[in-house]
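Chain A, query sequence.
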Amino acid sequence: MNLETEKSMSRSELSTASKRSPELEELLIDAEADDEQVQQSHPLVKRPWLLLLGLILVALNLRPALSSMAPLLSEVSRSLGLSAAQAGLLTTLPVLCLGLFAPLAPILARRFGAERVVLGILLTLAGGIILRSNFGEIGLFAGSVLGGASIGIVGVLLPGIVKRDFAKHAGTMTGVYTMALCLGAAMAAGSTVPLSEHFGNSWAMGLGFWVIPALVAAVFWLPQVGSKHGAHNVAYRVRGLLRDPLAWQVTLYMGLQSSLAYIVFGWLPSILIGRGLTPTQAGLVLSGSVIIQLASSLAAPWLATRGKDQRLAIVVVMALTLAGLFGCLYAPIEGLWGWAILLGLGQGGTFSLALTLIVLRSRDSHVAANLSSMSQGFGYTLASMGPFAVGVVHDWTGGWNALGWIFGIIGAGAIIAGLGAGRALYVQVQSEKL
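Chain A, predicted structure.
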């Protein structure tokens, strides 16, 4: 984007700021200007349906490497002789890598281009899945690290590609992207145990199956590598983000709600197996809960932007999440599906609101990109502590009842951070072209 376009964007933002809501208008104008400039200077995609299909297939692969492990965790632990603490580390490592490797994404994109990075990382993800399922305990942990790192990098890049190439439909495409992500998680949670049973009760085959969707996504993404894209050619420096309290509130909310989400991905089936369910039943409950997230992930942001701010919406979805978690942990097993549905409604809303807050708290797309990197980098690093804490507490106590304290503390922290992040304010930073 050149200087003339940038100036016209600024004039548009200033002229409309006094007429319409400051929450979304500046970002919508920025997105439309980006789209017009890119369409004039760089014919992006001759077959936009192919890009859309590629994005959906890539998004489908951002959770199976995480959610496929949970239903098989007990079997994997028995097979390899892992302690509960080691099992907790196994669920923690991928989430930790989401945060640690997220800052690499913009660096790699500026050096090689976002499309090439996505293709390369899909192949890296496939390698991690193969490593995790074929080389014993060392391969299990090393593959988990590689898989988490791959997902962390791609997860930062995809929203930027959506905003650039579907600028006039960014909201709809973000919803499609989120739904695909949830669908991938649900598919892996519900089908990994049946797949392992189909292949002779082999947990390695059940986990290794998910290399196929990663390779399919890479094939359909390949045409994007040759496309001409100009949005990543201009770099911006955003100053002051790490000193802004609102940015940290957004980051803490992202991290704490993610911590509960990855506790569910990593440990809910084991908790339910401990309560008497079979691994297949436990996997189906997790899968069903994640499928319910498809509805609330679309509805929650839409409802949240109808009020003056997002504080009430954050409290509601966090309350639903905590109610579902406590129900799955303590309530009579006969009502389990009701609590799982409640949990899905809550967690679909908490995740989509976390993404929405990044946009609403940013004045322009460049600030949003940097806030996204910060909230995912620091947030997922914080989130990784939750699954690890569950493993440690379970190892200490030999049961699951004490986990209620972990749920309560993390949930309360998320509500407190969300009450700050949900205010109708912008992060106070400076953005300048390099």
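Residues 321 and 347 are 6 Å apart (CA to CA). The domain at 21-428 is CATH 1.20.1250.20 (Growth Hormone; Chain: A;).
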